[in-house]
Amino acid sequence: MKLKFVIMKRLFVIFGVVALSAATTLATLRVADTISSDNLSEATHSTSPFSENAATDALFAASVVPAEYPDLTYAAENAVKAVVNIVATKQVEGRQYFDPFFEFFGYPQGGTQQREAKAGGSGVIISEDGYIVTNNHVIEGATKLRVTLPDGRAFDAKTIGTDPATDVALIKIDASGLPTLPFGSSDDLRLGEWVLAIGYPMELQSTITAGIVSAKARQLGALNNRYGIESFIQTDAAVNPGNSGGALVNTRGELVGINTIIKTSTGSYVGYSFAVPETIVRKVVVDLKESGVVQRAVLGISFRAIDQQFIDELGDDSDIKEIGGIYVASVAEGGAASEAGLRKGDVILSVDGVAVNDSATFLEQIGKRRPGDEITLKLRRGEKEITTKATLQNKAGETSLLSPESVDVEAVLGGQFETISEKSAKALDIRGGVQVVKIKQGGLLERARIKEGYIITHINDRQIRSIDDLARLTDKIRSIDGVYPNGRASSYMIVE
């Protein structure tokens, strides 16, 4: 009898728990149903056995409503039609075949030879008549470009212009009535916003991945260029080799960036990818299409973002105590900043109302403008805040736009350079110069057979004492004069 009572008691407890669970489920479903019908006021008056007030009920109910993801089908189906595959054929150096038979009979062996190599990337059609934007590194040094559309048609393409400073290039195919991808606004992108990455990764056909905007205005130190502008959009949309030059698209199917870089130790995607923002892409494309040369705006300062490390370096004696803003380290004589009254030690707080708390944001705000554009700068000078206007200049120190005949001398030369020290100049009995640190394939230096270490002292009979002098040149290169580190002077006449 006692045993029967215990069994009955346990069954009663189990039944009670089941009943309570059922009641809980019913109450939860009712609350969830109330909220899903967009009647929040009614939901807050619902009751739950797990809460003592209406607010808790609402939170509990919301937690069980399935998460709603954006519908990306419209953006994907429309954008994918305008993203193309690009195959770039390049000449690369390879080792010659070594044959011991010929070596035995005294024939010379070894050395290198040119061979043909192909590399794949992506591009975005931005006009019905065949203009396509991609990355500079996708087509750099290419002897032939082949573009394949999503519908299978293939065309040879020609290069309209390139910009290594932003890693953007513009090419064109001879076609009409093509699907296009309209420009959106990268400025309007918000952290956490959904985006699509579209391209041709890892020798696959057109591929779409999705992710969110993880960060904006990222600097990676990836663009080795004097005028390099790095203000990347960071996403967690999967991007792999072959995606370069492809589209970063918002949920409305608009182009907000060009996928460019992955940060990886393996060579493949490991969580983050980076895109050139639309503000920079659009500006470069317009410049290249209209004049064939990028109209680079220059403020004429050297600067550093004010972060904690910078404040610590300045020490307690400095009046700069707050993180944020751009510290003006020097002002170029006769430059836009100098004409606007900027001084060393000023802190730039905003450009046209946009706060600039890091180098990337500042570079983007200047980089998306042209020579001759007027900008409003908000400064902090000591205890005062000052507002002034500056008219941006081109790299030659003028406010006019460069002509189509103007050239980017550094890019044309095809190399990396550094200003020689006063000690080196004195030892060589020269007044200064720019040393060739590295020679890039396909540039004028390589074609003229100039060797690394060569110190350029004159271009077109104009004296070159520093990289600044080199950068200000815009004329077609006709002659180069200089000296090698051993003291041997050499001159080169450039014949195209």
Describe the structure.
This protein has 14 helices and 24 strands. With 496 residues, it is α+β, with helices and mostly antiparallel strands. The chain folds into 4 domains: 17-64, no CATH class; 69-95 and 112-294, Thrombin, subunit H, CATH 2.40.10.120; 301-391, PDZ domain (Pdz3 Domain, Roll); 409-493, PDZ domain (Pdz3 Domain, Roll). The strands form 4 sheets. A 6-stranded antiparallel beta barrel has the order 1-2-3-6-5-4. It has a 6-stranded antiparallel β-barrel with strand order 7-8-9-12-11-10.
Distance between the termini: 112 Å
Number of strands: 24
Strand portion, in percent? 25-35%
- Indicate the CATH class of the largest domain: Mainly Beta
The CATH topology name of the largest domain reads Thrombin, subunit H
User: Strands of the largest sheet, in order across it?
Assistant: 1-2-3-6-5-4
Radius of gyration: 31 Å
Low-confidence stretches: 1-52, 59-63
CATH architecture of the largest domain: Beta Barrel
Helix content estimate: 10-25%
The major beta sheet can be summarized as: 6 strands, antiparallel, barrel
Mean pLDDT: 84
- What is the count of distinct domains? 4
Structural class: alpha+beta
Which labels suit this protein?
single chain; 496 residues; Thrombin, subunit H; Pdz3 Domain; 4 domains; six-stranded antiparallel barrel
